[in-house]
User: What shape does this take?
Amino acid sequence: MRKNKEIRKTVNENYKPLKGKLMLYVLVYMLISVALAFIPVVGQAASTIFSGVCAIGVMATIIHVYNGEGEKESPVSFFSHTGKLFTNYFCSNLWILLKCIVGIIITVIGAVVMFVSGGSVLAQSIAGGANSIDPNILMNAGIGVIIGMIIYFIGIIVTYIISLKYGMVSYEIIHDNKSGKRAKELVEEAKEHLKGHVGQYFCMSLYYGLLVFCIAFVLTIVVGVIAGLILGLAGATSSAVITLVIQILDLILVYGILLYFIPKLTCSFEELYKDLIAEKGE
Assistant: This one.
């Protein structure tokens, strides 16, 4: 079983000659998602649904090309893969939600406690004005909100810890799409394959998450500083145009970073999946 550092080294070597092709697939996926968002009224919902539904298809396309099985793949092949894999993808995520039900219930309880505690103060202030709020009620509400926040975050942590065990389920679906296995079986297999290596999976996710965040944070600051200097020199008339240009640049920046790292992250977890399967002797 390779360490994450060795896996990333392998991916970096294999990714270079395929980088342009893999990024093109993700770019097409992103452009369609962004274009759907501009549809009046239903655009945002359509974009969100498309992004969620077709995510498994994009992953499958990247993995096939990365493994040298992508002779017939095209920038829109993810539609075909989505059609083949979506049922198991959707059902497996429902099973994972059921597995996480304890954490979800704790999260909901925390949210309700926060809402009720804060709502009592809001109701009193509406009824009699801000000056009429009883200090004892205000203190109790504050304590209630704090307790609710603690319960809420405990629920999120519990849900995340449980869901980590099933982190490789998408790879099970992609590699076993011709086996005829049901979603429940694939979810259990994903858990079994990752058993003993959840920490490694978490560290891989954390590494890429922090890397993307730090790069985006630094570049955003750089763009912000440059923008401030330009706006300071620009007149009032051109400031609105410059602000719009800067906002567009920020958007391009974020999507550009994701465009580069989504294929790389997918390939890294593919290498991890290969090691997990090899270790189980399958």
Summary: DSSP finds ten helices and no strands in the chain.
